[in-house]
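To whoever is on call:

I kicked off a structure prediction for a single chain this morning and the downstream step that reads the tokens threw a length-mismatch warning. I double-checked the sequence; it's 472 residues and nothing unusual in it as far as I can see. Pasting both halves so you can look.
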Amino acid sequence: MTTMTEASVREFKMPDVGEGLTEAEILKWYVQPGDTVTDGQVVCEVETAKAAVELPIPYDGVVRDLHFPEGATVDVGTPIIAVDVSGGSAAPEAPAEPAAAVPAPAEEGKPEGSGRQPVLVGYGVAESSTKRRPRKGADAEAAQASTAIQAELNGHAPAPVAEPVATTGQRPLAKPPVRKLAKDLGVDLATVVPSGPDGIITREDVHAALAPAAPAPEPSVAAPAAPAPAPAAVASYDSARETRIPIKGVRRATAQAMVGSAFTAPHVTEFVTVDVTRTMKLVEELKQDKEFAGLRVNPLLLIAKALLVALKRNPEINASWDEAAQEIVVKHYVNLGIAAATPRGLIVPNIKDAHAKTLPQLAESLGELVSTAREGKTSPGAMQGGTVTITNVGVFGVDTGTPILNPGESAILAVGAIKLQPWVHKGKVKPRQVTTLALSFDHRLVDGELGSKVLADVAAILEQPKRLITWA
């Protein structure tokens, strides 16, 4: 291993990228040992209980060690990368040749043959809960030898073992979903034989690497062979029938928050079905308005504005319950949360001071919030301090639901699918655009009258959107 003086090596520790977070998962390393880094360069992406965040290195130097692999969960304050800031060569020193005739297995963190990249160090430290990955060279050979020995003991020749991918210092070629599948199943992609074009590893290759090799047929003998077992007695295991997904990061935080909310705040949900035909017509008109040029105009925009007007008319619902102080805290501002389904799980970023925004400003903020969430770039700060939330289950074709409160908030509005339905309009049954709204609220601080007023106001505005002007 490369020798380094203590004075020239800087250890970069896992920072607290949120407020009071205790750990983060390393999603991806952007550098490897031997790479030169500069102050401010992003070296890795980590996921906390709130969001995925890219971490920049705070100094110049040469990467010497990565203390944890991708997928490891690391406590805040723990060193994750070592950088030599002395300005020496970027190339790691070659390991000394062993004196023994039989080459000793390479230590972790050292090159294992010509052209190989050093494997990540820090696996299996006693204080860490991360698992050790199998080494790509020696461990694979040991596994083959073990298979051969077991085959001899069973009285038959070992099955031929497919050659793993040649190690050239480059990462095996695989698409992100395939990499995730391999990670979930504990398969090292470096040991998988690719079958896709240009040497790309497929999902089938990963499953094939996980399944045990079938033994060679028994040699012929004079004694009659035993009868084959009935098909019902043959045990089989299909590795694709189950997939285990670790509960961590955003998914774990969401689960904990929802359980805490459901069993702390007494939830009450009320429903109303409303004719939103006029609102849908207004949406189409706003799309042609030059004030909204380049902005995304949809029903959610007017629903959000309707809720903001209803909160202004009923400010007591925009509050939180302070258990320690035994007080109800009424907020004189609205940080409007929008529940967003992302590949990493459900998150609820919020629009700060949404009550003070004009309709075009609200449209711009909604567009930025949604695009940032889809890219997985939502910051922890964007998900803190929410006061009231909207969840749009209608985008999935669902009519309505009973949403659970976002922790620390008093109300959440669920919006169902907008569908063409028969409706009594001006004394006649006509096809109209109809949706169902559901408002869940904390019954400790919101009684039935207050909750009903807010829901009725939202419905009235969506039925007659001119109330956005008369009630504002």
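Update from on-call: the warning came from a stale cache, not from the record. Cleared it. Sanity check on the structure: DSSP finds nine helices and 19 strands in the chain.
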